[in-house]
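Write out the 3D structure for:
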Amino acid sequence: MKSIFPVVLAASVMSAISCSGNRLHIYNWSYYTPPSVIEKFEEEFKVRVIIDEYASNEEMYTKLKTGATGYDLVFPSQDYVAIMINQGMFEKIDRSLIPNLSNIDPAALEKATYDLGMEYSVPYYWGAAGIIVNTGKVPEFEESWSIFGRGDLRGRMTMLDDMREVMGDALVHLGYSVNTKSPAEIEAARSLINSQWKPNLTKFDAEAFGKGYANGEFWVVQGYAEVVYEEIADNAQLMRDTYFFIPPQGGPAYLDSMCILKGSKNRELAHKFIDFIHRPEIYAEFCDFFGFPATVNIPARQFIEGPSWYRPEDIAGTELKYDLEDALELYNNAWFNSIRAGN
């Protein structure tokens, strides 16, 4: 998950973190917990939820490793869940306290090979970036990552400034895994991006692609559907002309999970929060707030009221990004020393 909206929830101060009792301390991605859901939980359980926020897994992990304490729940993505499990940073999940675990889609659990039995993590959201096209400007196109190779759209396209996303797209397009450690396959992806895709891009952009699309500067962008649709919500014509897809061949995906941190003073309340999130009507409220499909919670799908920008089945063929271990150096070299060099 990426930080996709401005931070409007009040972040906690560290002095408050030292308190326990009827307080649940959550450390989550920026604006990833709908206020209405928090309010309902607080009212039902007569507690206060204090939320502190982070913009990346790296920020969250570094803060916890350098001494931040007092948090109960954290929401890392799959690669950091694996790292943090291995480093003993989580309490074990007491499944008997979370009856709503039965609502979780087995397809999501199958992806979570790092914690198949939900011993330490419970899926929160499974999603993926895709491609957004202004069909008023680009009426004909193939639903493929190859769209970024179209010279006729040069100067009207962007891709994310995200190594794993862009290189993952290229690897999948070439028939490889987004987690490959093969030097030859990584080199092939680097070459494809540099020779066929990059010349047609205005820039790599993970921050303003939604605004650029909304103002007509870009016609094709790689990114998160909810970001673009938030930006164009007041433009009826552009809403009609906008089409989002995840190529059938797949691509990189993320699975953010709820994990109870080692030493939590409010483990029972943390379990109640996890169970609360997976009530079908509450999970549907969470998804409706962002325009998400209920990818993780099957019964919630019947409670969805608003539009979802893609369907759960659209991400079935995607692949989670895992920790690359020693192969990370190969990716960094391809990305920073070649693809992004001089930009």
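Confidence is low (pLDDT under 50) at residues 3-20.
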